Amino acid sequence: MMKKIRQTWVLENPVYVEAAAIVAGPQEREGPVGSYLDHSFKNLYCGETTWEKAERALMKEAVDRSLKKAGRQTEDIDMFAAGDLLNQTVTSNYTARDYPWPYMGLYSACATSMQSVALLTLLVHSGIIKRGLSAVSSHYGAAERQFRNPVEHVRQKPSTAMKTVTGAGAVILSDSPAEIAVGSVTIGKAVDWDMKDPLDMGQAMAPAAYETFRRHLEDTGRSEKDYDLILTGDLSMFGSRQFLELCEEDGLFITDKYLDGGNTIFGYHPSGCAGGSGAACSALVTYGYVFHKMRSAHWKKVLCIATGALFNPLTVRQKETIPCIAHAVEFIRVEETAGG
Amino acid sequence: MMKKIRQTWVLENPVYVEAAAIVAGPQEREGPVGSYLDHSFKNLYCGETTWEKAERALMKEAVDRSLKKAGRQTEDIDMFAAGDLLNQTVTSNYTARDYPWPYMGLYSACATSMQSVALLTLLVHSGIIKRGLSAVSSHYGAAERQFRNPVEHVRQKPSTAMKTVTGAGAVILSDSPAEIAVGSVTIGKAVDWDMKDPLDMGQAMAPAAYETFRRHLEDTGRSEKDYDLILTGDLSMFGSRQFLELCEEDGLFITDKYLDGGNTIFGYHPSGCAGGSGAACSALVTYGYVFHKMRSAHWKKVLCIATGALFNPLTVRQKETIPCIAHAVEFIRVEETAGG
Lengths: 340, 340
Prior knowledge:
Two copies of one chain form a homodimer. The first copy, chain A, is α/β, with parallel strands linked by helices. Chain A has two domains: about 10-175, Stage V sporulation protein AD (Peroxisomal Thiolase, Chain A, domain 1, 3-Layer(aba) Sandwich), CATH 3.40.47; about 180-335, Stage V sporulation protein AD (Peroxisomal Thiolase, Chain A, domain 1, 3-Layer(aba) Sandwich). In chain A, about 35% of the residues lie in helices and about 25% in strands. Chain A contains ten helices and 13 strands. Chain A has helices spanning about 25-30, 50-70, 90-95, 110-125, 140-145, 200-220, 235-250, 260-265, 280-295, 315, and strands at about 10-25, 40, 80-85, 105, 130-140, 165, 165-175, 180-185, 230, 260, 275, 300-310, 325-335. In chain A, the strands form two sheets. In chain A, strands 1, 2, 3, 4, 5, 7, 8, 9, 10, 12 and 13 form an eleven-stranded mixed beta sheet that branches. Chain A has a two-stranded parallel sheet with strand order 6-11. In chain A, helix 7 links the parallel strand 9 and strand 10. The radius of gyration of chain A is 18 Å and the shape is globular. The interface between A and B is large, with 61 and 61 residues.
């Protein structure tokens, strides 16, 4: 029997969430996560002339606001880890040039949020860096014309199609005590359950979320009861149902403590789509809504499983199946200790 | 004055290069690096039906051969860190699904080779993983049609244009002693010196190589004399000259110990191009030629500075300048010790 390869690292000393900031476009502001936004732009242009520049404006705004909320200067950050959905991750690259930080460019599609948090957490935990800043972004207009068709085509989409979230999230991780900490991280592997439909990414990604969740529990020796909330990134209505079914077949009943970022971001039944998607989706819901609920002691222990579909439009035209990945981060509310 | 942000990590205990493997296409085999290849394909198809599948065949071949050379099984690898130039790094994603490894998808264009080596080195050094496998790839046909124009257009290119290397390199890093070790790593930051020409990437990337080289020396307190070889990734004839000039303006005279991967891969004056480029370029020259020379004790200490241009075709059409990055890894030949 093959040796099981470790995917989870449980931290001996917590790594803390010093601050997080989220910014978004107008439709996200109207949704239930809207009240947790640090800033929202009135329209998709975000004061710029192209969708691509608009996405950069979102990321830069999130980065700067996270620094301000943490009370940190540029030089307090030791590493920048970022990624986005645009070809060659240009949003992150063009944002990185505005800062003097060693830059770790990452890509795992919509799972990049938790990939970057996991990586910076491990680096802080090891003492390699003292403080790292993670950022992710996505933009409806930029993603739509790159991955699908010009919006002006007014193509009809199937009911399983998701809508790319316009927004960005930034989070600062460090060893300075704060209210929320990272307890453990699980790095996903690429899984492929033979799904081929790029307009049903939720059901393509659900198996990856399930496999990472199961491995997280196996590696930590915990049960689903140890968490107050299990959050998946952007599985949509269809993928969420499939995720819950896969869990139930395995004896994991989590319906009463489960949320999907994509189902949450616009409200449950947004205009003709099965939920939100995009690298910003899990970031907005986690850093906004979930962290707020944790700070107010509603939830103490949350597992955020961000999910990504690792295809591109050419692999779809070449009739390939869609590999997917999910990275999980356990966030814990730090209890006040005597003398603390 | 702003605090200087650390970019270099000098290892207290070395991390070793257990094995490396390189595979390539026919033109690379004809060049001076050809005799160090572990395998070469007779034509660009590499036994597949599309350029994109061919690139995957290259990466998979390099990964499998590196495992075999190290005498390792799949389950001995604790993490896979990979990246490539295709949109959404699909070569790496589709390769990752064939292995049961936690997957860290990376992107820093042609600097991804040393980005992944640097990252895995830090993770091994910290004890987070015991053994990591890095892979990068590029393919002339796949890159040409994605970044430029269909080859069938037979467009003339300026003399500064580079040719994408068809190949892949894989390297296994661990704490098991071997002949070559990593001594230090320098993570680059995104720099932008206002270059706009995507057909002169060498001169766009030269400042990034220079800045990373200078920071490496500053951070380590060393001089250029401490190295037997300074290797840049793929600066081309033009970028190499600019890199040397920038160094000389700074009092760093390295002409007698300097090599550029792009100038080396096809021979100094290949058919109508200024040198090789692509994520595989620095990997092939480093893991093939440089490691061979280190094993035969010709060089003892080499600094490999991989360089990447962080643009995409849309940012060029939108008249943006090209941010670039360079990541450096110091490789050292491990001397035999008494009793060792």
